[in-house]
Amino acid sequence: xxxxxxxxxxxxxxxxxxxxxxxxxxxxxxxxxxxxxxxxxxxxxxxxxxxxxxxxxxxxxxxxxxxxxxxxxxxxxxxxxxxxxxxxxxxxxxxxxxxxxxxxxxxxxxxxxxxxxxxxxxxxxxxxxxxxxxxxxxxxxxxxxxxxxxxxxxxxxxxxxxxxxxxxxxxxxxxxxxxxxxxxxxxxxxxxxxxxxxxxxxxxxxxxxxxxxxxxxxxxxxxxxxxxxxxxxxxxxxxxxxxxxxxxxxxxxxxxxxxxxxxxxxxxxxxxxxxxxxxxxxxxxxxxxxxxxxxxxxxxxxxxxxxxxxxxxxxxxxxxxxxxxxxxxxxxxxxxxxxxxxxxxxxxxxxxxxxxxxxxxxxxxxxxxxxxxxxxxxxxxxxxxxxxxxxxxxxxxxxxxxxxxxxxxxxxxxxxxxxxxxxxxxxxxxxxxxxxxxxxx
Length: 441
Known about the structure:
Distance between the termini: 25 Å
CATH superfamily: Outer membrane efflux proteins (OEP)
CATH architecture: Up-down Bundle
Number of domains: 1
Oligomer: single chain
Strand content: 5-15%
Shape: elongated
Largest sheet: 4 strands, antiparallel
Strand order of the largest sheet: 2-3-5-6
CATH topology: Outer membrane efflux proteins (OEP)
């Protein structure tokens, strides 16, 4: 699997540091995912990036739209003709002071600008790429939350298994103690069973600690206060996935995976940026004008206007356009290399996830059979010990076999569910696909 960095920082949440006791909360997998998408820093940053991309589009669009401004003013002026080099006999060099009023609206627009139009399309593609990257960030958050949720489920199963093993060990210890007191078994049997009981108690305490830490991890990735107590309302039943092929999953990934589609959009954006750079050599048609009224005072205004059209041609730019085109060529090649590498990673991720699912499904089958056999062996060992046919070494060994079989079953089921999460992430649209895979629909 590829390694991804998921920011697990959280938005500020009121009451998380208040120290107050929070009511017990029931939490489903879907609710946990929605909390993560709402509070996880990766999702929040993705939303911010989307807003910035929309702002860039508005800025690029402004280059193609007309600009209009209005002004109204009163001007008082006095001129010294001597400063302009004018000297007329009999004419005073100082003119004024005089005043005039002016009310006017000014407008300008690039009517034909092929470069700006291409640049706008490039910005729109970059905005699309940013939104798709945000989708990929959401997929990472969903993956992190789902993994944490499943970790709690497996940790809870280990706690229950450890508690059952501790109860069984205690019952065997009490039986060995009573038989020793009755003189039908040696003291070593009692000591051996007591050691086994204490060992199971230690395992139970360790399992409870791991369960509590797993809950803290889920609280962290979902943005819940660490003091929030909650219980999981969803189980993760074992449901094998059938009929999935690597080719089908790869095709779905190419159509829905955010980072893959984002790279394709970036490539298209750079291609349009290259066209925009080349279009700077084409003529541009600009229109500008003003319309208003002026006069010696507001009561004597007269309408005046001015309109102009200009064609601008780039004659020499010192190689700037050539450099811009070369830069976009490098960016296109870089993104295409990244796309090829990502495509290979996606296929490896999908095939690895499918292999993990098949292996875990086979392990679940074997672990279930092994657990049944181990429980039968434990029952027979206890009966033999009770009947005095053998000492409790056989019982302790049978207990260890049951514990190992339970752990193998829990681990294989956990691995199978993690494989579903990994496959959903590899295909893309993690939230939607995860619901389908977990529900086996």
